[in-house]
């Protein structure tokens, strides 16, 4: 009998926790920006079950929105409120490294395409700049490397 797939239901959370780097916190603490409707128990539950982290303490603060003036109407407006959670864990917390957008998310290709479109708007007789040609060669090299990696696998 063939193996059946799709019997086990997997639930993905629709909650976004944004890590806020803060040098003032202890090594076993981390700060997150969380949705306003999430409470301390939900934060602890989320981190324990999704990331297998032993949470010892959760402290939350709700910051009021910033007051600004609408430049069209002159009325005072307040931006949305922000909830910050400081989580204390049993283990030391290490912030993840920042992703290289050029390498991991196709940032070079996006830059090249935006330059190409900007050049196209100037007219069809405009020659590509040195910067654009250098960017194009980097994009082509990264495409070749990706193809070779796919062919080896």
From TrEMBL:
<dbReference type="GO" id="GO:0032543">
    <property type="term" value="P:mitochondrial translation"/>
</dbReference>
<dbReference type="GO" id="GO:0005762">
    <property type="term" value="C:mitochondrial large ribosomal subunit"/>
</dbReference>
<keyword id="KW-0687">Ribonucleoprotein</keyword>
<keyword id="KW-0808">Transferase</keyword>
<dbReference type="GO" id="GO:0016740">
    <property type="term" value="F:transferase activity"/>
</dbReference>
<dbReference type="InterPro" id="IPR012677">
    <property type="entry name" value="Nucleotide-bd_a/b_plait_sf"/>
</dbReference>
<dbReference type="GO" id="GO:0003735">
    <property type="term" value="F:structural constituent of ribosome"/>
</dbReference>
<protein>
    <recommendedName>
        <fullName>Large ribosomal subunit protein uL23m</fullName>
    </recommendedName>
</protein>
<dbReference type="InterPro" id="IPR013025">
    <property type="entry name" value="Ribosomal_uL23-like"/>
</dbReference>
<keyword id="KW-0689">Ribosomal protein</keyword>
<comment type="similarity">
    <text>Belongs to the universal ribosomal protein uL23 family.</text>
</comment>
<dbReference type="InterPro" id="IPR012678">
    <property type="entry name" value="Ribosomal_uL23/eL15/eS24_sf"/>
</dbReference>
<dbReference type="Pfam" id="PF00276">
    <property type="entry name" value="Ribosomal_L23"/>
</dbReference>
């Amino acid at each position: 009998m063939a193996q059946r797939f799709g019997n086990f239901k997997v639930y993905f959370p629709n909650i976004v926790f944004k890590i806020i780097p803060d040098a003032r916190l202890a090594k076993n603490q981390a700060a997150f920006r969380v949705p306003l409707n999430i409470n301390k128990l939900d934060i602890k539950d989320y981190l324990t079950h999704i990331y297998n982290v032993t949470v010892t303490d959760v402290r939350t603060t709700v910051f009021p929105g910033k007051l600004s003036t609408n430049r069209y109407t002159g009325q005072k407006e307040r931006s949305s409120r922000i909830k910050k959670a400081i989580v204390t864990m049993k283990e030391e917390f290490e912030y993840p490294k920042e992703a290289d957008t050029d390498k991991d998310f196709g940032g070079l290709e996006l830059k090249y395409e935006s330059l190409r479109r900007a050049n196209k708007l100037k007219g069809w007789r405009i020659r590509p700049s040195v910067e654009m040609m250098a960017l194009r060669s980097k994009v082509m090299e990264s495409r070749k490397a990706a193809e070779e990696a796919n062919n080896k696998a």
